[in-house]
Amino acid sequence: MLSYAFAPVRAAALRRNHPDMERPFRVRGFALLSPLAFAIATLVVLWTDWPTLRWLLPMLLGLSTIMLALRFTRDERVTLHHDQRHAGWIFVYFTGRSVPATVSPFGGQHLLSTASADLATILFAVVIHEWADRCHLPSPARHDSNTP
Description:
Layout: H1 2-17, H2 30-47, H3 50-74, H4 80-103, H5 114-134, H6 140-143
Helix pairs in contact: 1-2, 1-5, 2-5, 3-4, 4-5
């Protein structure tokens, strides 16, 4: 489900990087549908239960860290500042997902009602989506100084 959560974020970045790219169709209201889809996917992750998230989120955070470290060793153009700026939202998303799950009624400590946990998750998802949309990687044509 987390891969489904990332799809609207990546689609928003593609739209921002390549607004004139030819597409087989256009989605009306994408500016509203993209954060909504991200929030719904994030809710589904919450509803999977805290016992599942307790091992899944740290594993994903660890794998993301390993992938980032491998990028540093294989590509001299990649810097911590560069990747932190463009992918930092992913680490905050994985880490932040555990807070509502820990206190939710979905296998957590039941400190929040279902409605409160859902609302906190939706607000978190909308903020993360906005952050991710704003810190996308620039397109290669605009980013690469060697481009003619």
